[in-house]
Amino acid sequence: MDGFQGENAGAAGAVRPMAAAGMHGYLGDLDDLTGVCAFLTEGADYWLPVLPLEGVVLLPGASMPLLTARRAEQSLLRSALEAPPPTTRLIAVMHWPRHWGPV
């Protein structure tokens, strides 16, 4: 279907390209974080804040908008934003299922 999907149709029936979902344009105006990119040293140990999210799989290099309402999550993100290089703005995202065990 040339990059378009029927289930991706808007309320008025307009079909949006699947690539638009990857840019998170459906969220409206967003502020991009810009700055220095630092590489981590191979074999070195780093402490990263861990953000447990239910039902989320985030692949390396992918981006994900974070909308947080809990103070603990906001504090975690604030600490990541203020961390010294090379871990500035770096967090670990972990899948956290609501129920452990067989489905």
Automatic annotation (TrEMBL):
<protein>
    <submittedName>
        <fullName>Uncharacterized protein</fullName>
    </submittedName>
</protein>
<dbReference type="InterPro" id="IPR015947">
    <property type="entry name" value="PUA-like_sf"/>
</dbReference>
<dbReference type="InterPro" id="IPR046336">
    <property type="entry name" value="Lon_prtase_N_sf"/>
</dbReference>
